[in-house]
Amino acid sequence: MNFSRLIKNCSIPSRWLLANNIRYQSSSAAQNLIQVDINEETGVSVVSLNRKPVNSLSLELFKDFCGVMDDLEREKVRGMVLKSSCDNVFSSGLDITELYPNPSEERFEAFWLWFQESWLKLYASSFPTVAFVNGHAPAGGCVFAISCEYRLMLPYYKIGLNEAPVGIVATEWVMNSLRAVLPGKNAERLLTSGRLLDTQEAFDIGLIDQIVNNEEEAMARSEEFFATFDNVPKLARALTKQVYRKNDLNQLIKNRSSDAKQFLNHILRPETQKIIGSYFKSLKDRKKD
Ligand SMILES: CC/C=C\CC/C=C/CC(=O)SCCNC(=O)CCNC(=O)[C@H](O)C(C)(C)COP(=O)(O)OP(=O)(O)OC[C@H]1O[C@@H](n2cnc3c(N)ncnc32)[C@H](O)[C@@H]1OP(=O)(O)O
């Protein structure tokens, strides 16, 4: 597997991370997998995941997300609100069809490296980030949310890292992002049980910062969050965030190839394929009941 070639083709903006050596080209302009709306007055950008029906995270979506993050860095936006344009779902996590049945190594390596890249760009972004969790956010959906700096969530949805019950072991950088949000023992319990929390439970343990009742409220709370940085020089804020998150970022940056190889080996194990297969089948069968 030529991981180093692929890693060279990925980039994140921060100067002390990877070389910024490719330009973004939308892989799926026709599908419009990500919608971006920049408010010229406030400088706030609303980024909506738009892969119907449930925003499952595919290679194409990750590529487009990275392109959008590059654009927002160039535009020097004041802040970003990440939300979904699908009904009732923020994101249903990694697209299971990227993992099952037995993905090709070529597709999988690209998929995984663009997933890593999306996380790096979001986790290290120079501008403040808010996740407006306006629907369920299991697994990879929760990863997007916890990589933002502030989380708002609508009532009656579920959020959490349910990888373990799906037969998947969360990678270290995902665990680190969770540990940055929750005190150690709650993070470990959430990961090992794979339990999905409802909005109130997520608020009670600090996984989300505020419960909001509608989009208007979410935008008002986001604005208040962004306003807390109005008197802070942008560069100082960005570098403080990036240095604060440096250990988590470096853990992945130094191990991108091995992280991808390890995950592929895990996914291709017959036992893992079997568990993911029955889980996927149960998702499909649920509808028939
Ligand atoms: C090692 C890496 C470690 C950490 C990194 C993060 C890694 C994470 C691994 C994952 O993300 S694996 C994916 C885990 N995701 C889930 O367990 C969520 C599964 N989905 C659901 O529970 C539900 O779909 C929902 C609650 C999100 C939404 O429910 P509902 O509104 O009732 O929609 P449907 O269930 O009817 O779904 C519509 C349609 O979409 C298909 N689908 C749902 N999720 C996925 C998915 N993640 N990948 C691919 N396809 C998905 C579902 O089967 C339905 O398909 P139909 O053909 O039946 O229409």
TrEMBL record:
Record localization: Mitochondrion matrix
State which pathway it belongs to.
Lipid metabolism; fatty acid beta-oxidation
User: Under the GO molecular function aspect, what terms does this record hold?
Assistant: delta(3)-delta(2)-enoyl-CoA isomerase activity
List keywords of the entry alphabetically: Acetylation, Fatty acid metabolism, Isomerase, Lipid metabolism, Mitochondrion, Transit peptide
InterPro entries per record: ClpP/crotonase-like_dom_sf, Enoyl-CoA_hydra/iso
Reaction(s) this enzyme catalyzes, per UniProt: (2E)-tetradecenoyl-CoA = (3Z)-tetradecenoyl-CoA; (3Z)-decenoyl-CoA = (2E)-decenoyl-CoA; (3Z)-dodecenoyl-CoA = (2E)-dodecenoyl-CoA; (3Z)-octenoyl-CoA = (2E)-octenoyl-CoA
Under Pfam families, the record lists: ECH_1
> What's in the GO CC field?
mitochondrial matrix
- Keyword Lipid metabolism among UniProt keywords: yes
- A GO biological process held by the record: fatty acid beta-oxidation
Protein origin, superkingdom: Eukaryota
The cross-references to PANTHER family, in alphabetical order and at most eight, read: ENOYL-COA DELTA ISOMERASE 1, MITOCHONDRIAL, ENOYL-COA HYDRATASE-RELATED
* Known role: Key enzyme of fatty acid beta-oxidation. Able to isomerize both 3-cis (3Z) and 3-trans (3E) double bonds into the 2-trans (2E) form in a range of enoyl-CoA species, with a preference for (3Z)-enoyl-CoAs over (3E)-enoyl-CoAs. The catalytic efficiency of this enzyme is not affected by the fatty acyl chain length.
Q: How does it assemble?
A: Homotrimer.
- What protein name does the entry list? Enoyl-CoA delta isomerase 1, mitochondrial
